[in-house]
Sequence to fold (872 residues):
Amino acid sequence: MKNVAPKLEDSVYERNFADINPRLTEAQALSEAARCLFCYDAPCIAACPTAIDIPSFIKKITTGNLRGSARTIFEANILGHSCARVCPVEALCEGACVLNQEHKRPVTIGALQRVATDHVLDRGIRVLEAGSPNGRRVALVGAGPASFGCAAALARLGYACRIYERRTVPGGLNTHGIAAYKMRAPEALREVELVRSLGVEIRGGVEVGKDVTIEQLRSEANALFLGIGLGPTESLRIPGEELAGVVDALHFIDRIKNEPFRRIDVGRTVVVIGAGNTSVDAATQAKRLGAESVRVVYRRGPEDVPAYHYEYELAKSDGVVYVFHTLPVRFLGDGALTAIECVRTEVTTDEKGRRMVRAVPGSELRIPCDMAIVAVGQTKAVEWLTRHLSGLELDRGRVKIDGEGRTSLKGVYAGGDCVNGGREVVNAVAEGKAAALGIDRDLGHPRA
Amino acid sequence: MADLTADCAGIKSPNPFWVASGPPANTAYQVMRAFDAGWGGAVWKTIGEPIVNTTSRYGGVDLGTSRVMGFNNIELISDRPIEDNLREIAEVKKRYPRNAVVASLMVESKREAWHEIVKRTEGAGADGLELNFGCPHGMSERGMGSAVGQVPEYTKLITSWVKEVARTPVLVKLTPNISDVTYIAAAAREGGADGVSLINTINSIMGIDLDTFAPRPIVDGRSSHGGYCGPAVKPIALNMVSAVAKHPKVGLPISGIGGQDAVEFLLLGASTVQVCTAIMHYGFRMVEDMIDGLANWMDTRGFRTLADFRGKSLERVVDWGDLNLNFKVIAEIHSDKCIGCHLCYIACEDGAHQSIRLTSGMKVPEIIEERCVGCNLCMLVCPVPGCIAMKEMPTGRAPMSWRAYQEALGRGVACELPGERHAH
Fold:
């Protein structure tokens, strides 16, 4: 990298990456919980993909029954601890809170959920138990939210679950993605322990298809669940991607999550390409690591920014500058990146009414920078799926399933990003849970 | 501008707001602070042979984030020597001649003891006396307080002893810990009382510490029942005040106690209102809004003096048998205000008369008018002000009470009443 931003004091790193939504005090929690109306048929429950009984867990906070509150949460969502931190609550439960309709501040459901889950995890209180073994085995591929949602539900029904994970550290998105100021990796791993406490076995560092075959998994288990997520970041397919200083956003975010902040080099001037939620995580964290200037280059305008509104606002309040209607065409530099050549764009409508991005001829411009972070979305895991599961039906690269996680192959189920194309942790857990119900139904509800 | 001057049984004060007998009226220092803040009168903390108190003494009941919706105490009467209290009463009266100072008294049930304390107190310059026959804890175990106030004969006897020597008006303070407060009020009248004050505090245990199993307020791991008061007791006080005010055998001026909503006590016949818990919560300064609010309300309604509206609601407190059975209201949901919490639905479905319909996917529930019995429950639980209102449905039938119906039946006349309706 040409110009590496100076390292910061440790205390500054800690401040920059401090919890963006700090833990509520007991008094704050009680007064916030008291604001919940305890709606019947509550819209917040309907807005939660895992359908946590939110009014019940909040009511239990007001009565001091934090253990029961945490059980209500984890029974519905085994990753309720991380979802309390990483869910886009404005778009889900808190957005549905009826208090919004009275132009009042919604109940801070995420923060309250965290009060309950912190309480039991801090104290090592077990609120869920595995079911009596029913003699059935399920193999799951990928130790992320989808497999956890599926395995936890199955384990509570008595199934023996074994999760295979390519990486050595399990957790998926929570451990390897998601900005550190929302949740640190150790916090995510506490939750992995919760899954393990139900008897779920996690085999890390095992690549399915190489170290063990799909056929082996299918023969040793009564059902197979695919929670493999997505493939690597999309390539821009422009010249110069090999230059030092051009990095993949997912890799960058993973390093921040799992290495000391000091060890991560960030450019003095940074350009993030793409304007989704991953771009926000990359841009804000580049800034927090000490980059002097961070710009987001996006080929469309502000009205098309795919990131959640509050994420976009967070990036701007961190001092990230958005450069709209601009498309990179070439990375420039001699060994190390020095600038990105871009072209201005305009959004037009084609004859079928579809909005198209078109380069404006003769509008080339250069944006000097030391580091470019590519955040233009992830590829689908098509290659792996077609190689290892012949006959598996896909739809635009996504595994096709029914409402209970069944794929086109008998005994093979799926959920999470490999099915939905890339959504939230809470969606993955919900899809995993749904598949667990499908598996249990198909295996005839075996009970010990 | 409204005239707030008050007169209760001949005890006059610049406004109807008195500090009730209790911790805020324990010393001259406090009573003078109260008068400086605007209180019209004060009933001194009960004077008698000094006692020894426990620590701790008070308990509170919270509701959500609202602190002290209910309050109790196991404190006894004044722990200060009688002569100190009397000297301070004299000092206060000298400095604040216009404000009412009423001495609350409690001594052992002997004629000579009562004669002596009455003479000494009046000698100190008190404007009136309040006989504490209501204190429900501690003193009652020694044959005083509510031990007197729960027995009409004792109440009448001791009141008459006091009246043998008293030159100032005598109020008898009534305990609510009794089946019918009007019996004691009538006994006070028979004993010669000039007025009554009510209610004293209600027997209570405030709660239990789930870690130690100790009841609250905790005294070395144990507790005793104490006197309950504060905002939570207002409805009980209003009922007892109205019962005493309406009772033909009482007919005495009333000093109402049990909540700072003064107008409601005055509308039910009280001449003054005594406040203690709210002062213990917020300090004497809260009287400013009480004075201001009362004056503004009177000006808005066109009342010049307290007498213009005192007791105005009494004729509207009637026996159930005199209520009009041909009057009908039903609930109406203003859908523009509805936020979709569905609390009205579940309250009606599980707790009342299954008269609200919820349609899947619809935000606003629907009143099933032909089933609605007009009970108010949905309106009461609705969190949005004005969203659910009760609207009158003319029945086209002449007013008819159960009593009038029975009387008509006795004459052989069958009147028109709403048909018997059942939920199922």
Remarks:
- Chain A is about 35% helix and 15% strand.
- The mean pLDDT of chain A is 96.
- Chain A touches chain B through 15 residues (CB under 8 Å).
